[in-house]
Amino acid sequence: MPNIPKKVQDRLVSGIKKFQPILDQSKSRDVGEADTVTIVKDMLTEVFGYDKYSEVTSEYAIKGTFCDLAIKLDNELKCLIEVKAIGLELKDGHVKQAVDYATNEGVDWVILTNGIHWRVYKVAFSKPIDKDLVIDINFCCLNTKQEDDLQILFMWCREAWVKSLLGDYHTQQQALSRFFIGNMLLSNPVLNSIRKGLKQISPDVRIEIEQIQLVLINEVIKREVMEGDKADEAKKKINKMLKAIARSKEEKNAAENDDSSEKDKITKGPVNNNSNQS
């Protein structure tokens, strides 16, 4: 997690203290969607640091319909925000609507919120279109003295957005996902390392990589981790990474061989063809 600038941290702490009672009171009064949008817009400014007039757009028009709010930075659309009434429980159907909006606009990020619950999604432009839940918090449960709470809130502040920290956080989440780690365990470098370790423990036992692979698939890794779209995506990324590493090693070895050949030529010097002539 990146360090939060002192100015931003003070704003987050102040914003949490201000809006937690506002949200609690609004929920008890069961305010409607329009009033919730007003609260969310104020939070985007006072907590997350966006300019209310130039960077937060209300009722952003998308192909004949509207998304409640949108965030623009340098006049470029960065995120669509779908707001529901504060007393309404967020559901998958709400997410689909917001993701559809983002897909139509080619936007990577969607926020779904009722003011209290905030869910941040990364749109996956696959077939079919999918989404990854990156952040899911209850604003009213945040503790201003907990660094982790402030860090997670900082992820979609303006200062973090301009540095693409949310994207970096999502990439880290993907790398630590069960799908990525499960498939990484089945990659040749890891299987070779496991084999070497097992040989050190049992030097007289013959152990093949295929045997280790079967044990991992059948007895160690859950089946759900190895199947499905997310597992396939993890496999593709790992294979791409391993190919890039192998290609880099080949290029390095080729360059080293070329250097060695040049040094040999310099060391040996020119061949004297007249040495055997009388």
Plain-language structure description:
The protein starts with 5 loop residues before the first helix and ends in a 10-residue tail after the last helix. A six-stranded mixed β-sheet has the order 1-2-3-4-5-6, sandwiched between helices. It has helices at residues 6-28, 33-46, 92-105, 147-154, 158-161, 165-175, 178-185, 188-201, 209-220, 223-226, 229-268, and strands at 56-62, 65-73, 76-83, 109-113, 117-124, 130-138. With 278 residues, it is of the alpha+beta class. It is built from eleven helices and six strands.
Q: Helices and strands in order, then pairings?
A:
Layout: H1 6-28, H2 33-46, E1 56-62, E2 65-73, E3 76-83, H3 92-105, E4 109-113, E5 117-124, E6 130-138, H4 147-154, H5 158-161, H6 165-175, H7 178-185, H8 188-201, H9 209-220, H10 223-226, H11 229-268
Parallel strand pairs: 3-4
Antiparallel strand pairs: 1-2, 2-3, 4-5, 5-6
Helix pairs in contact: 1-2, 7-11
